[in-house]
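Researcher: Please predict.
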Amino acid sequence: MLWIAKLVGDMPAVDGIAPVIAHAAAAGKFEFWPPLEWAAIVTFVAGLLTMGLGSIPQQDVFQRANTSKNERIAVWGTVIGGVLYFAFAAVPIYLTYAATLVDPALTASLLAQDAQQVLPAFVKAHLPLYAQIIFYGALLSVIMSTASGTLLAPSVTISENIIKELMPHHRMSQTKLLWITRSVVVVFTLLVVVYSLWSLQSETSIHTMVANAYKITLACAFVPLVAGLYWKRANNAGAGLSIVLGLTTWIAMEFIAPEAALPPQFVGLLASAAGMIAGSLMPRLFGGRRPLPRHT
């Protein structure tokens, strides 16, 4: 991507990075904050918190934290990873906006049809064949590696943490667990294919699909994770009720009022918090068992 950016930056219409940044600034592309209108503010906050809080319980953050040698490495690994996300994301943004300077007509027509096609069409129309091969090869490799990791992560989690716990331990050998994991991977693959075909027909963008993925973790997993780490009274009953209420409320609101002032995922987040509080405090109020230790 950096090499492609160098090729694009050498084009006469672009002439480096500074002209692209100046043109984008003049066009108002660096206006980060929304206008002072209720609908715009709610949309901005919803998008920011959905992507921000919803990404915390994700598999990549979990792996980065748990594979670190100590707490300091876990913290800095996460911070550096976040900074690198910004750095790598800036390259395709630069390339896409540079396309508006090189070929305004092509860019305008694609923006009116499908903005996701601007960069691939620009590379195909204005870069030499060897650059196209490298660009599309890198793009396909990123897609395949991301797809394989994304399929494997939930499959291992469900097989290890749910299916294995529901089966008698003396019957669960490593070979059997491996076959169960492979079967779950196949099931997830079929579900993803169905969802992808539906998204293709409904013309759902990549950004929307990513946001939908973060809605699930925001409504179901964020509150149990935070409460389990920082609230001493949190227990398994609260976590289970939090997940159930968050999931059912979010899905219900997606059907009942998907365009409500308070987005469905935030209604699910509030329900998840209520479930955590109620499920964790009910045993104590009625003289039940004490909350589990924090590390459980």
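Model: The chain has a mean pLDDT of 85.
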